[in-house]
Amino acid sequence: MKHPIPKVITLTLFSALSHAQVTDSSTDQVQDMSDPLAVYTQGGFGVSDKGLNLKLGQSYDTGNPDTMAMNIIEVKGIAGEQLGWSGSSQRDDSIDSVRIRNFSVDTTNGRGAQLDMNYNVEKELLDTSYSVIQALPKWGALQLYPLAGAGVRVNNGQVDTTLDTESGSYPIDRTVGYTIPGVYGVVGMYSKLAITDKLWLNYNPMWLTAIAGSDDFMESAFGQGKSDVLANEVSLSYQFTPRFNVRYFANWTQDQSLKEGNQRVEINYQF
User: Fold this and answer.
1) Residues 98-119: pLDDT tens digits?
2) CATH code, domain with 102
3) Which residues are CB-neighbours of 194 under 8 A, at least 6 positions away?
4) How many domains in the chain?
5) Which of 167, 146, 142, 171 has its CA nearest to residue 159?
6) How many other C-beta atoms lie within 10 A of the C-beta of residue 104?
7) Which range among 22-26, 100-104, 136-140, 224-228 shows the weakest confidence by mean pLDDT?
8) What is the number of other CB atoms lying within 10 angstroms of the CB of residue 263?
9) 3-class DSSP state of 41
10) pTM (2 decimals)?
11) Is residue 203, in this structure, part of any structural domain at all?
12) Containing domain of residue 61, as a range?
């Protein structure tokens, strides 16, 4: 079943693109694409087990010479029924999700900040989080970037399970529109292991846990009976040219094996 993108998401997409159309001094030189805190204008696409993914990132001038920033928009799961390979009966040719990020970094201390919005089209669910990221000193070929933040969930189509005192039963298919079921915390890190000058490995674990909200959210915010989740991401990347790389990603949780998670191959180009 196809679900239209809500107007708030559409407006945010146009707003992010409009805000990014300004001159940026960071485009004067090629940025290190292996650095999780790098800021640059970029484009990319990927092939995943859920369909095609498209990505557009635009850097912009913050007005402060010590900071760099960019907006990134991703659309995921395009033509999943035709191009996906996961074998899931839930694949269709509608998009799966839209992700919008605003990222900034202070070049004097290696500290970044990220506003991250993820909209699940099928579930009509929006997770919005804000986190702070700090680059730590390199330890040989390894560098760590711990982060911490908090988020809020907005959901549409919540079933009203209030007991009907007259009939003594619960209403069926009765919805209450958009709600904010709860807020959650996130703690994790990005990491980079440089294997060669052109080949590197990332491992990015993120732990999310419900902080406050409805009883249902506190009990099952991240799956049936789960108030928290450990999300894992591993990527292996190769830099063909200073502006062009190919990356393989795998994402899974503590309840899945790596094979059971999501897989994708992504091509990125820095403009």
Assistant:
1) 999 999 999 999 999 999 999 9
2) 2.40.160.40
3) 34, 141, 142, 200
4) 1
5) 171
6) 18
7) 22-26
8) 17
9) coil
10) 0.82
11) yes
12) 7-270
